[in-house]
Amino acid sequence: MRAIMVGMLVAAAVMRSAEADLDVTVTIDLGQDLGQNFGTLFSGTEAEGRLACGAGFAAVYNSYFRSDRLKIQFFVRPVKQTAAYTLDPLPRAGSDSGAYPHGLGNDVYVHVFKPERSYQVWQEKTAQWRSLPSQKWPGKSAATVRGKRLEVRGDHLVYDGERILDQAKAGGYRYSYYGQGHLFLYRKQTTDGGGEIKQITAVPWSPYGADLSVDLAQGVAIDLKMMKEFPYAWGQFGDEVLNCSNWGGLYSFDGKRWVVVVEADEKTSYQIYSMVSFGDRLLMAQYPSGVLFSYDGAEVRTLTGWPPVPPGASTSVREAQTTAIYRGELLVGVWPWAELWRRDPDAQDWVFMRRMFTHPKLHAIPVHPYEPEAEAAGLVRNDLGQRLTAMVPTGDALLLGTSSKGGATVLEGSRLKLLTSSQRQEYGAMYRLKMPGNLAATITWRDGPTTLRFRAQNGRMSIQQDGRELASTSLAPGLVPDLSAARIQWGKGVFGPCPGEMSAMERR
User: Fold this and answer.
1) What confidence score (pLDDT) does residue 209 get?
2) Report field, pTM of the whole predicted structure over 0.85
3) Could you tell me the residue range of the domain that residue 309 belongs to?
4) In what order do the strands lie in the sheet with 300-302?
């Protein structure tokens, strides 16, 4: 591992206004960027053990999209009114019945299919969506690696504008994920004899090589058990990269070999829609239990009641679909009622924040919202199940999207006569959620050390990199707790471990 050089200043003194002060500086060398998680920089707890502050890089995969790897969150948790939040509606990105926001850099995007296909980017200053020219659209499975874009464009895997793999010509390959120095590709190809190849292949690749082309001959493949099987969510635990297929096959790659952690079973519905690194484990959001599963490198455990079922809802066919870390706290979105849950680290319990739809009233029979209306409109019975699709940190907020089960479901009034226009508009809606005390910004990649400074003082919190301010927001009076007796832990916390070692620590 590369060493992390740390120069740290923590000031926790009571000022004239009785407002506490937090000032932390970290100089860090992240080493070579090989798609790894960067984890937690620091975590602060008060004398009684209460989580008070911290900073780190969230590693989240939701449905189709990976969180931006270089987006850092800095948080300060208030002592009082920890459940307070605001939720504001934003303009729709398009006419689809589903909006799946995702972040790259400091931008938030939504891929729109109706009324015509487009890519929309959020403009915070004007509070509007702006349509991007097609050449500026993010490619499929886009991620930032060594400060440059790795993505699929057409049939090609592209890095920083250079084609590094012709997927179709190579034989049915499709790039999915980059982690721990390996490209992970799904392969589906019919053989000359009429058989079918279905594999996930891990191919070693580095953005530092003189020749960036992908050498598939170096790949290590695992055959998928079922013909209907394909990769869903991705995540990492330590040096392992994990994928769960649409039939519940959980596969781990440690850099040399594949291990089947959970066998795929065509008789059992088991799907993982989201993975998030949280503390010392990898959490996986599962259907049909509607709860999180955890992986610790040895076994998968069901976390019963993570989150619970709200009174009045059915306990069956629930889908924990969406996860996020915000203000140092774990958030989960659950289908079919678009529930938003928050894990309170103080009470060590779940808090029901809200449903993202105002209609219909919660019920257990039938299991899904609007089953009769969907069938009358010629839709699948559960098509009007309600999803909270994603939660993307940006500035001091989270941008949230909603969806029907199928994001392209037709919601015109001529088909869904029993739903009002305002009810239909809640499908595919966008919102801004804010809880006081969180700030997110994307750092610039450095091949070498970079200095990050986190300040919460004088009614303001900010993030700086190498002397340049990246983001700031206001803080309400009294928000920052007295940290004079706080315990600062380096490289460990809610965002998972940071790969490296720390030295040169100073505190005053």
Assistant:
1) 93
2) yes
3) 86-134+231-437
4) 65-66, 60-62, 271-278, 281-287, 292-295, 300-302
